[in-house]
Amino acid sequence: FFLYTLLGSLLLLVALIFLYVKSGGSFDIQTWHALPLDGPTQTLIFFAFFAAFAVKVPMWPVHTWLPDVHVEAPTGGSAVLAAIMLKLGAYGFLRFSMPIAPDAAHEWAWLMIALSLIAVIYVGLVAMVQQDMKKLVAYSSVAHMGFVTLGFFIFNDLGVAGGLVQMIAHGFVSGAMFLCIGVLYDRVHSREIASYGGVINTMPKFTAFALLFAMANCGLPATAGFVGEWMVILGAVKANFWLGLAAATALIFGAAYTLWMFKRVYLGPVANDDVKGLSDINSREFLMLTLLAIAVLWMGIHPKPFTDVMDSSVAELLKHVAQSKLN
Question: What angle in degrees, to the nearest 10, is found between the helix axes of 39-56 and 2-22?
Fold first, then answer.
């Protein structure tokens, strides 16, 4: 993680210094957006930003730091990392890369789309073989963030808006998944899937919450996980049918690894004495999970307040990015 961040941040710093000098000593982002940049310069700026933002998303193949960080981080750290930090890289693409270097963004969109599809398909397959619950959800995060970058770089309203909705939804759902793992870890002190089985028999209230968040992670309709991914898929179909089909296929993998983990951890007979001795969630844990459950259901059933807020910004961004700086 340190090496990835160091290299990416160094290139980002060089790009920022160049833009500062080019703009006559201004750090105003709107001024940077309006800078006339030729094709090669835009390409260099785009990839300098890409080096930093791709690490934070994270995009394949610079995602390898995320599972290890989640494993070592405490529950609260994992929840914050999933809910907030991963979104900074995606925000950077929207705020800096695409408006400052629109021609390069269009020219290299095929690469961004390819890396995003690898993330949602290949990393989803990697998640299916994980035995550590935190690692599984970490790889799941990479796959879900792949939908975000895919939506951004198909350059239509459904794709970009879907990517933004997916960012918010992923914050709720992935954060909730890590908190659920934390609830189990506090009691059994193990993240291994093999250490559990039949949790529903001793923690029925908790299992109900875990089921909701697992379904949201699968992208079940009426949950937060569905709306953004569906918008991105529709945007992808609008751009290219086969691209949309590839993105839709990835949902199968998401359902496979999430339901596989849920079945082995929560369903069936009680697996061992540790599970037999589990106590159900206390009032603090119940309140914490209830708030997240409300957010997940609200966003899935009534997403209009979220999409309405971003519609004008998405339209303005696409209008700006559609204007070439090479004329």
Answer: 140
- What is the reported pTM? 0.88
Q: Which residues of the chain have pLDDT under 70?
A: 1, 325, 327
Give the long-range contacts of residues 238-241, CB within 8 A, separation 24 or more. 238/154, 238/156, 238/158, 238/159, 239/154, 239/155, 239/156, 239/159
Tally of structural domains, the chain: 1
- Both tokens of 69, joined, read 């960080």
In a domain, 326, yes or no: no
Q: Is residue 327 part of a domain?
A: no
Rounded CA-CA distance 206/117 in Å is 34
CA distance 146 to 219: 14
Is 66 part of a structural domain of the chain? Answer: yes
Phi, psi (5° rounding) for residue 27?
Answer: -105, 10
Q: Return the pLDDT at 1.
A: 66
Q: Is residue 182 in some structural domain?
A: yes
Rounded to whole angstroms, how far apart are CA atoms 36 and 19? 11
Distance CA 291, CA 307 (A): 21
Per the structure, the complete domain to which residue 289 belongs is given by: 2-321
